[in-house]
Amino acid sequence: MRFWRCGIFVAALLPFLWWAWQVAAGQAGPEPGQYLLLNFGQCALILLLLTLSLTPLMKLTRWKGFAVIRRQLGLWTFSYGVLHLTSYLLFILGLDFSALGEDLQRRPYIIVGFAALLMLLALAVTSNRYSMKRLGKRWKFLHRIVYIALALVLLHFFWVVRADMTQWSGYAFVGVILMLLRIPVISRALGRVRPRRGRISDTQH
Ligand code: HEM
């Protein structure tokens, strides 16, 4: 498990280091702040989708390690979300909070992104064993807000790229597939895939 943990830590850190390097080397285009903002936002969305793909994978393979990886990727999703917010505050708003109200009126999708990030924060702070034990059944219920967070992020993204939805459609398609895999009848079928294979091999031996 330590191998996976380290591998994921490095893999998740690499995009950050690469984009930071691009900015430092002056290769991030005319607007490095915007470059960071967009890349961090997309990275957070990709990580969110990856995190959500681990439960179906765990059902399919029965490998419990996916639960650990899921938590780690969830925390990285939140971290890139925070980097995205930080880029906005630093490079777009220039820390001029008096301009925030006007910007929110002009671009209400920022409020949607903020709501999604708050949900990711709730998930991040309750993703430890202590919270799991303390919250009991409510933990599962609370963690279902990840689906609302995904819907909000997709809405946030949609609002930004309304003029060209090619890229957005790809992410939305993956998101819809991941939600479909959670429909009880499909999810149960996923869980049955492996034992059936087991039974075949049992009869073969
Ligand atoms: C406080 C929270 C947030 C703020 C202030 C914020 C702000 C922004 C802004 C200003 C843009 C548009 C940039 C532009 O085209 O000018 C943007 C785009 C985007 N944001 Fe957010 N956002 C937030 C939360 C999130 C979260 C939580 C995610 C994902 C998990 C996310 C993912 C994206 C994506 C994918 C884009 C589009 C990137 C692209 O066009 O390539 N945002 N955000």
TrEMBL record:
Residue stretches spanning the membrane: 35-54, 75-95, 107-125, 145-162, 168-190
Pfam families per record: Ferric_reduct
Subunit structure: Heterodimer of a catalytic subunit (MsrP) and a heme-binding subunit (MsrQ).
Family of this protein: Belongs to the MsrQ family.
Gene: msrQ
Protein name: Protein-methionine-sulfoxide reductase heme-binding subunit MsrQ
Keyword Transmembrane helix appears in the UniProt entry: yes
InterPro entries, per database record: Fe3_Rdtase_TM_dom, MsrQ-like
